[in-house]
Amino acid sequence: MKLQAIKKLAEIKSGHSFRTAIKDTVFGPILVVQSVNIESRSLVIDSNELKAISKDDCPAGESSYLQPNDVIITARGSARGSFKAAVFQSCDKPVIASSSVYILRLKNTEKILPAYLALYLSSQAGNAELAKVMTGGAIRTVLKKDIADVLVPIPDTATQKILIQLYQNIQAQEAQLSKKIKINNKILQGALQLTLL
Predict the structure, then answer these.
(1) Which of 15, 29, 65, 73 could form a disulfide with 85 if both were Cys (CB 3.0 to 4.6 A apart)?
(2) CATH code reported for the domain at 2-154
(3) What is the pLDDT of residues 12-46, one digit of tens each?
């Protein structure tokens, strides 16, 4: 299997540095994706969870606006395993990335699928590679210049698709199990209430 550095696979962009805390204006015309929006169990950014900002908070021509199939990865984490990645698909509003994430814009999505790259970077193996270039103390950081050299194994696209489908299948099973646990807890609570009457 071929290993390639991220800089060979993608253009790496930093998120926008906001001068103040991001204020959610609810009906603002621009959405912001931050590291907190990248869930550890999802390969896709949920645009319904993003904060909305006014145009005044974001300069025109900013290079941190997202495009479909951009892979977003957290720039900071507390330890190995805390770096997460996801894919931006689309949204009816413009979406900008904050400085807490990097944007990886793939050069060739036929060679490496965005969801596979996000899956690999979020995995134990991907986090182990990121750990090699981490800096800092309690809050670890991966610098833009260092993430460029992180190596990614690239199987053929058929294998990438199988791995993505396997991950999605596991997610679906976990969601069903979570629902079952909630139902079982409700049954238990109901039984306890009846017993204590």
Answers:
(1) 73
(2) 3.90.220.20
(3) 998 888 776 777 677 778 888 888 888 767 788 87
